[in-house]
Amino acid sequence: MVVRCADWAGPVRDRAREVLAEVLDAETAVSLAPMILRVGDRHRGDHALGLLDDVLRRAPRERLAPLLVSGDRRVRRFAYRMAVEEGTLSPVELARAAAEDDDAVVQCRCAQAALGEGPRAEALDILLGARNPQARSAGVTALRRLGQAERAVDFLADPSALVRACARYVVRQHGIDPLPWYRARCADPDLPPGAAIGLAECGDRADAPLLWALLEHPAPGVRARAVAGLRTLDMADVRRLRPLLDDPAPGVVGEATLALLPSARDLPEEWLLRRLDPGRPRWERVSAWRLLDAHGDAARLRAAVPLLDDADVRLRTWAEHAVRLVRRREPRAWRSPEIVALLDRAGAVDR
């Protein structure tokens, strides 16, 4: 009946809507909600959606509870929107939902609703302690209304860029300049990783020496965020960052790769090709591929052909795509003898 409520034929559609209106109650609405919400995206699917909305708004509060914990993200969004509009959840319950749900839409909606009538201490503490950045950022921003800028300082080095930005906004609104705080923290050996990237986000190139010094920090997270900070300040130096491609921490190698991509042609191609050896750590091989890919078609193809039979699925897929790209983009008559030979070695990829 739910599906037929959106039928193309008018008589079928009208009769289905009559039947659904007769049978849809608080119990069946809960079980049919996933189907109704899916059909609701179709042309003429809004009628069944309206019936669902009407029935659930008239149902006892406890009927909505199963929908709030549904495994279907669409259902949870619908249920929390209704709960917020109907005021069926307390600020603390909304804050817990914002902190615990894995959907960003639910997180934002519930966090905003939890703080809607003014921040309450318990709800605010739940948001500030949440694992997801959406909830934490809402809590940090709410500190401005409370005049508690000193609490926002604790989030200037948060792992999330969103939360760090909100914390800087709050402290600035209260006359506190975050830049000296970042500089002092980056000079402290016991700094959190977020302080390094935070310095780059609100500092300038004059702060680069502090970040260069952190490339030898014992904590991998600090080294990685220091590299990211240097990239943010456009201070990546090939000679100084190249050794970090051998760092034992995958995160540091990944950040160094991103920083070196614009200057990838300054790295020796033969050296990068050797780093694709199957015996090397996977993150080093992925790094080498990305840097070779930035060298251009010829280097990309030289790297790709040996990887066509590689055990690593991702590298193999990238190699196949590279071969296809050259074959489709470049007429055979324009290819150099080396490119022709490499494509012949590649065999029947996408023939």
Write the layout of secondary structure elements.
Blueprint: H1 10-23, H2 26-39, H3 46-58, H4 65-68, H5 73-86, H6 91-100, H7 104-114, H8 121-128, H9 133-146, H10 149-152, H11 161-173, H12 178-186, H13 193-202, H14 208-213, H15 220-232, H16 238-241, H17 250-260, H18 269-274, H19 282-293, H20 297-307, H21 313-329, H22 337-346
Helix pairs in contact: 2-3, 5-7, 6-7, 6-8, 7-9, 8-9, 9-11, 12-13, 13-15, 15-17, 17-19, 20-21, 20-22
Task: Describe the fold and architecture.
The chain has 351 residues and is mostly helical. 65% of the residues lie in helices and 0% in strands. The chain has 22 helices and no strands. It is flat, with a radius of gyration of 28 Å. The mean pLDDT is 92.
The gist of it:
The chain is mainly alpha-helical and 351 residues long.
Distance between the termini: 48 Å
Form type? flat
What structural class do you assign from the helix and strand content?
mainly alpha
Low-confidence stretches: none
Using the CA coordinates, give the radius of gyration: 28 Å
**Beta-strand level of the residues, as a percent range?**
under 5%
The H-and-E topology, N to C, reads as HHHHHHHHHHHHHHHHHHHHHH
Share of helical residues:
55-70%
Number of helices: 22
Please tally the β strands and state the result.
0
Summed over residues and divided by their number, the pLDDT gives a mean of 92
Tell me about the largest β-sheet: none
